[in-house]
Amino acid sequence: MPQVDSHSHGHPSWADLATTDQDAAKSFYGSLFGWTYQDNPMGEGVVYSMAQQKDRFVAAIYAQNEDMGQSGMPPMWNAYVTVDDVDARAAAVAPAGGTLMAGPFDVFDSGRMALAQDPSGAVIAFWQPKAHIGAGLIGEVGSMVWTELASTDASAAGRFYADVLGWEVGKAEMDVGMDYWMVKLNGTDVAAGIYQITDDMPGMPSHWAIYWAVEDCDATVEKAKSLDASVIVEPTDIPPGRFAVLSDPQGAAFAVITLAS
Prior knowledge:
CATH superfamily of the largest domain: 2,3-Dihydroxybiphenyl 1,2-Dioxygenase, domain 1
CATH class of the largest domain: Alpha Beta
Order of helices and strands: EHEEEHEHEEEEHEEEEHEEE
CATH architecture of the largest domain: Roll
CATH topology of the largest domain: 2,3-Dihydroxybiphenyl 1,2-Dioxygenase, domain 1
Radius of gyration: 17 Å
Largest sheet: 8 strands, mixed
Strand content: over 45%
Mean pLDDT: 93
Strand order of the largest sheet: 2-3-4-1-5-8-7-6
Number of helices: 5
Low-confidence stretches: none
Helix content: 10-25%
Structural class: alpha+beta
Shape: globular
Number of strands: 16
């Protein structure tokens, strides 16, 4: 997908990283993906660094606040889904078995958002855009290409997102070696998937993961390692392409994939 100027309701549209060392994280992802940054002061010493690729915003990085640190929250990437009416979607969270964690609230003139936790514990952000649509580049090298939920209860999570967002969650036809569900909305692919956390993944909590498109998965992994990243899943072939899962130097997990041609 080339440059985009809007995102439809129910589609993943943005990701940001809450980290313990903002400058180090900016340097790491800048070196790995070629990102440049626009730093936006948000008040009280907070800076929201928006990453750019091909002069389009693709993600953001910010420092965890004191409450996050004291709670033991690890550095993590957060997934956002565009919605048509954030207040209405937020009101649907509790009846669907989830927990509304924050909002809805306005983010200056950028948009209106809410944070929700699905029944399996994964946190997702709902975003109703105003001045900021989300990512302006999707599916190209250095930009978000896939969003994936690892869930301790994939069935309950699937029902939750169906009720709140209208997602159509169906078993994947491709063989990826595990129970995997693809997401559609009105019959159209949403670039998101869900899988069930299994017994051979002990201690893994439910979470949303972001996949970033890269030119060469193996070369990207080697470069990430040279930048002090850790490898969680070595480069592996799957039907959509070749992927790997990494942990950045501060401990945030993310995935990279070279799409099959």
